[in-house]
Amino acid sequence: MMNRGRIVRSTGDRMTVMADDGKQYICRARGKFRLDGRFPLAGDLVTFRRAEGDEHLIESILDRKNYLIRPPVANVSRLCVIASMAPPVTDRLALDTLIAAAEYNGITPAVVVNKIDAVPGEALAAVYRRAGYDVFLTSTKTGEGIEEFRKSVGEGITVFAGSSGVGKSSLLNLALPEFHVKTSRISERIGRGRHTTRHVELFSDKKGGYVVDTPGFSHVDPVQMMLYDKKRIASCFAEFRPYLQGCRYDDCAHTREEDCAVIRAVEEGAIDRVRHENYVSIYEKVAKLKDWQIRELLASETI
Ligand SMILES: Nc1nc2c(ncn2[C@@H]2O[C@H](COP(=O)(O)OP(=O)(O)OP(=O)(O)O)[C@@H](O)[C@H]2O)c(=O)[nH]1
Ligand SMILES: [Mg+2]
Ligand SMILES: [Zn+2]
Fold first, then answer.
1. Hey, whose CA ends up nearest to atom 9 of ligand 1?
2. How confident is the model at residue 183 (pLDDT cuts 50, 70, 90)?
3. Considering only CA atoms, which of 2, 4, 18 is closest in space to residue 201?
4. Most confident range, picked from 46-55, 188-197, 233-242
C-alpha cells in the first residue's frame, strides 16, 4: 500500500516519515534516487510503501519547492539567520552569504540580532532593515523582542542558521517551546562530528509549522551554499535590485565597472558599503568556478 508523508528526521540513510495519518515510519530511500541525483531530504513530501518485514521504502519525492544542502533540508519557507554583536561577533560576510543563499534558492531570509542585553544590535539591524529584510532584535536573557519574533514564525519550514554560539538553540527554546527543542538535547544529538552533519530534525508545532536548528559553523562558503551562477548573485541582494537595469553595460558585474548604477548607489549612501564589499567577495569567489566544476558540483549534490 502506498502512503504519503513528510520526512521529519534524516540521518542521510535512514529517515523518519510522518505520514498523513499521523504515524511515524522509519524509511530507507530506494537506490534509484542516488542514480537520479535527487536524494530525499528532511522536509520533503514523499510517497512510501512497506517492503519486506518492517522495512519501508521511499518511492518518490513530491513537488519539491527548493532545498539547501547546508543544512540538507527541502521545502524551506524561511531562513532565519541569527547574528550577534556580542562575542562571538557575527562575521558580516557569513551573514550576507547566508542571506544571498536563501534568496538564490527562493527562500525568504530574516535576520535576528540576538544578545542585545550584552551589546546593542540597532546599527546592524538598521542595515538589514534598510535593505528590505525582516529584522528582529532579541535577548534570550531579558526576553526582549522574543514575543515579536515568536509571532513571526508561522506555517512552513523555518531553518535557523548562524555561527556557533550566537544563541540559535537558546532562541528556539525560549521563543518556540511548543516545538520541543532542548538546547542540551540538540547539541548532544547533533554534535559536531563528521558523520553527524547530515543529521537533520524537523520540530513540529502541530499547527503545520516546523523549525530546524542547525549546529553553528565557523565558516560559510558561497560555493558550499550553492551560489553557482555569478550572474544571479546581484539580484540576491534585495537593495541592489532597483539599480540592476541602470548600468552602462548590460553585462555589468557591479564590482568595479565604470558607470555602474549599483556602485553609484553605494557612493551616494543608498546601499551599505559593507554589503557591496561582501557582494564583490562572493561574486569573485563564484566567478573563479569553471563550468566543469559547476557541473561536477551539481552532480555531487545528491547528498
Ligand atoms: N548575553 C546573552 N547570551 C546569550 C543569549 N542567547 C544565548 N546566549 C548564550 O550564548 C551561548 C550559546 O548559546 P546557544 O543557544 O547554545 O548558541 P547556538 O547558536 O545554538 O550555538 P551552536 O549550537 O554551537 O551553533 C550560551 O551560553 C547562551 O547562554 C542572549 O540573548 N544574551
Ligand atoms: Mg545550538
Ligand atoms: Zn553595475
1. 167
2. very low
3. 18
4. 233-242
Domains in the chain: boundaries: 2-63, 68-212, 230-299
pLDDT digits (tens, 9 = 90+) for 100-128: 999 999 999 999 999 999 999 999 999 99
Is the CB of 275 within 6 Å of ligand 1?
no
**Residue 33 phi, psi (nearest 5):** -65, -40
Atom 30 of ligand 1: nearest residue by CA position: 115
Angle, in degrees to the nearest 10, between helices 92-104 and 273-287: 70
Residue 179's pLDDT band, with cuts at 50, 70 and 90, is low
Candidates 3.40.50.1820, 3.40.309.10, 2.40.50.140, 1.10.10.10; CATH matching 2-63:
2.40.50.140
Cell of 104: 538564490
Atom of ligand 1 nearest to the CA of 187: 23
Helices 273-287 and 122-131 pack at an angle, to 10 degrees, of 70
Closest residue by Cα to atom 23, ligand 1, is 215
261, 239 Cβ separation under 8 angstroms: no
Give the CATH fold of the 68-212 domain: Rossmann fold (3.40.50)
pLDDT score at 185: 42
Q: Indicate the fold that domain 230-299 takes in CATH.
A: Ribonucleotide Reductase Protein R1; domain 1 (1.10.40)
**Maximum average pLDDT range among 128-142, 169-183, 223-237:** 128-142
Strand partners of residue 124: none
Judge if the beta carbon of residue 167 lies within 6 A of ligand 1. yes
Q: Is 141 in the pocket of ligand 1 (CB under 6 A)?
A: yes
Q: Which mutation among 98, 149, 170, 219 tests ligand 1's pocket best, with the greatest number of atoms within 8 A of CB?
A: 170
226 or 279, higher pLDDT:
279
Q: Is 142 in the pocket of ligand 1 (CB under 6 A)?
A: no
pTM to 2 decimal places: 0.91
